[in-house]
Amino acid sequence: MRSACGILLLVPVIAAWSTSAAAYRPFDSTDPAVADVGDVEVEVSPVSFRHQRPGEVWIAPQLRLNYGFAENWEVVLEGQAEHTRAARSVLIENALSLKAILREGSLQDRAGLSVATELGLLLPGVNEQQGFGASLAAIAGQRWDWGAIHVNLAVSLSRENRGEVFFGTIIEGPSRWTVRPVAELVYQREFGIGEEAALLVGAIWQVKDNLAFDVAVRQAQVNASPETEIRAGVTFAFSLR
Q: How far is it, in rounded angstroms, from Cα 188 to Cα 222?
């Protein structure tokens, strides 16, 4: 918990010289946008909570770093630590990805659909999720006056060498609102293991262009078992230029 408090204390300091933040918490999906060249976007949840069988899980922290290394390109590094009473702590969902804009559209202040792709290397975890995997995603999105919709379709080879498919849709309210409602629908299936369907509802508070807070509740059915997750976090950005 000390590390989580330290992260929260750093937020206002970093935001003082931040650029605009466009990374995408609190979703499992993403949007067809990348960090500007030379910018680092940080998405962090100091503490989140998941209730599932056989017990509760504390997620502290969850972190995603996005760096714009070229025009319409970014590299993404992510992972999260999970803690339970019954088992030792683990570091999981580690991945290194490349994301590229294939078509500039409304999310780049142009007309029409924005389209992106993301190629990911799934990295080994600590105390769980050993081995490597790979993923490939297609991402499309469009923004209107009333809000925006982003659609993700991904296929992957898990660390256990099983095929997986993922479909996600983000729906959000008008970007001009200081606090905008958001929702997400997700379906994913790991062949030979099971499937998951989930609905997330929440809100994003855009404090200013370079700082946003989020909170959401995610309700899922994982192999017919209910799972509830409460997510909360912050997104900010700064420039290395």
A: 10
188 closest CA partner among 201, 198, 178, 180? 198
Backbone angles phi, psi at 118, to 5 degrees: -140, 125
Domains in the chain with CATH codes: 2-239 (2.40.160.40)
Token pair of 179 as six digits = 């606090």
**φ and ψ of 84, to 5 deg:** -130, 160
CB 31 within 8 A of CB 151: no
pLDDT in tens, 129-186: 999 999 999 999 999 999 999 999 999 999 999 999 999 999 999 999 999 999 999 9
Q: What is the DSSP letter of 105?
A: -
pTM: 0.89
Nearest to 92 by CA among 102, 80, 101: 80
Look at residue 86 in the predicted model and tell me its pLDDT: 79
How much is the average pLDDT of 17-35?
Answer: 77
The beta strands (E) that lie in the chain are given as 39-45, 48-51, 56-70, 73-83, 90-103, 114-122, 133-144, 147-157, 163-172, 179-190, 194-208, 211-222, 225-239
Instruction: Report the candidate in 214, 210, 139 with the shortest Cα–Cα distance to residue 173.
Output: 214
Q: Tens of pLDDT along 33-87?
A: 999 999 999 999 999 999 988 789 999 999 999 999 999 999 999 999 999 987 7
**CA dist 99 → 34, 168, 199, 206 (Å):** 7, 17, 25, 24
Hey, what are 43's tokens? Answer: 């998405």
